[in-house]
Amino acid sequence: MAATVRQSSIVRTPKLPAILRLPLQFGRRKPVSAGAGLIVIAACAVAILAPWLAPYGPDDVDLIARLKGPSSEHWFGTDQFGRDVLSRVMYGGRTSLTVGLGATALGIGMGVLFGLLSGYAGGAVDLVIQRLMDAIMALPPIILLMVLATTLSPSIRNVIIAISVLVTPGAARVVRGATLSAKEMPYIEAARSTGASAPRIVFRHVLPNVMAPIIVIASIAVGSAIMIEAALGFLGLSVRPPTSTWGNMLNTGAQTYMERAPWLALAPGLAIAVTVFSINLLGDGLRDILDPRLRGRD
After folding, report:
1. pLDDT tens profile 162-201
2. Domain region containing 187
3. pLDDT value, residue 105
4. Residue 20 domain-assigned (yes or no)
């Protein structure tokens, strides 16, 4: 008598692509950081879509409605020229986030190059690069920024360059340390034994293995760059009006009309605080996920 073997059908759920699976895993492990990441994405989306989302133009003047408090017509009130504060905060986010992301990208990029070259080459190259980084870090940041900002003409490009100078040394130090550890690993020795050139080893084998600290540093540097731009704008050393940034909004009207119209400082101040706090929370979560020493701590 032949035995009948019943094969149970196995139901396989479709596997999500990595671009969706990784954020879901991050959200389960770090829900607070994931929520902060959503706030950052929302802030970027509002800044990008400001021409379509803003109820008014950022420079639309209405002297009859000057210094009016929050209302259904102007949710965040108006400034001393009757301009809608909500619209200016939206447009100001475009400039502030552009400066933050641009300065971080430029500063981290330069720091990665200097760090890889310093850590892998060693010797005199390492000595020269590290003394240069020490010289930059030895200068008081606000003095260095004021010198750079006053030397360069006030524009978004020059503000990005000035802030990136402050970001570069810290990134170079971290990447150098990670490179020193990575270049002693067996797979680097194996690559050398096959005759691979130094640039190929650095960019093909070392760089991918030091990406975790680079991502963490970049996520934290964005918040710092936004704060630095706001400080420069408050001092009148950033992008000049009428172009709105969160920093120069605090400078142009908030100081003079603080008692009479506190919403002029409250709106851009809250935008800076919420965005930077969310970026820092996101950076903390990424650090916990990507740092092998902290992966077990949830």
Report:
1. 889 889 998 999 899 888 888 888 888 787 888 778 788 8
2. 31-294
3. 93
4. no
User: How many CA atoms lie less than 13 Å away from 236 in the CB half-sphere?
Assistant: 4
Residue 8 lies in a domain: no
Does 79 score more than 90 pLDDT? Answer: no
Query: What is residue 11's predicted lDDT score, i.e. its pLDDT?
Result: 47
CATH number of the domain within which 221 lies: 1.10.3720.10
Residue 147 CB neighbour total at 10 angstroms = 12
pTM, two decimals, is: 0.81
Structure tokens at 198: 């130094």
The residues near 167 (Cβ < 8 Å, ≥ 6 apart) are: 103, 104, 106, 107, 108, 111, 221, 224, 225
CB 34 within 8 A of CB 286: no
CA-based end-to-end distance of the chain: 58
Angle between helices 18-29 and 263-290 (to 10 degrees): 100
CA distance 175 to 283: 17
Report yes or no on 231 lying in a domain: yes
Q: How many domains does the chain have?
A: 1
Helices 85-121 and 211-234: crossing angle, nearest 10°? 140
